[in-house]
């Protein structure tokens, strides 16, 4: 005869795996391509990554150095923005153009203008907006 076995139902604390340096380097390479599609200047790109322009140019030419925790979070959010735009727009070019277009959700400013505020929370604000716009998983 089969007997019922107890099931552990205590929720475990969520601890996401940290982004590795290799993953951060791959995201940096992807973000370079994304910035080219968005037609950003080096100054704008450096602001989004919260780094000096000289460092950004060196990383762009030679590959990234050690990426800080904040830097990995910024890269992750930028990749999330790219993913959301690809899901919202079937035409990739429309998604790339959306970044610079005025938006009523941002009081007429563009998403790029918001992100160029320079804070991590500015990038996250755009990501959260797009995640909500694209709907559930």
**Biggest beta-sheet profile:** none
- Can you give the helix content as a percent range? 55-70%
Regions with pLDDT < 50 over 5+ consecutive residues? none
Number of strands: 0
Bin the strand percentage. under 5%
- What's the gyration radius in Å? 19 Å
Provide structural commentary.
With 137 residues, the chain is mainly α. The protein has 7 helices and no strands. Helix 4 packs across helix 5 (92-98) and helix 4 packs parallel to helix 7. The radius of gyration is 19 Å and the shape is globular. The termini are far apart. The model has no long low-confidence stretch (mean pLDDT 93).
Brief rundown of the structure:
With 137 residues, this protein is an all-alpha fold. The protein has helices spanning 21-38, 42-49, 53-62, 69-88, 92-98, 111-115, 120-134. Helix 1 (21-38) crosses helix 4.
List keywords for this structure.
137 residues, mainly alpha, 7 helices
Outline the secondary-structure elements.
Elements: H1 21-38, H2 42-49, H3 53-62, H4 69-88, H5 92-98, H6 111-115, H7 120-134
């Amino acid at each position: 005869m089969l007997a019922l076995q107890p099931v552990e139902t205590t929720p475990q604390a969520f601890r996401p795996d940290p982004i590795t340096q290799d993953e951060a380097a791959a995201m940096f390479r992807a973000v370079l391509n994304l910035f080219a599609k968005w037609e950003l200047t080096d100054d704008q790109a450096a602001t989004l990554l919260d780094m000096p322009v000289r460092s950004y140019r060196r990383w762009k030419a030679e590959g990234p150095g050690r990426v800080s925790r904040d830097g990995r979070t910024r890269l992750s959010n930028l990749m999330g923005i790219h993913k959301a735009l690809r899901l919202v727009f079937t035409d990739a070019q429309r998604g790339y153009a959306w970044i610079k277009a005025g938006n009523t959700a941002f009081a007429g400013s563009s998403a790029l203008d918001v992100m160029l505020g320079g804070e991590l929370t500015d990038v996250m604000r755009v990501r959260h907006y797009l995640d909500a716009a694209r709907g559930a998983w």
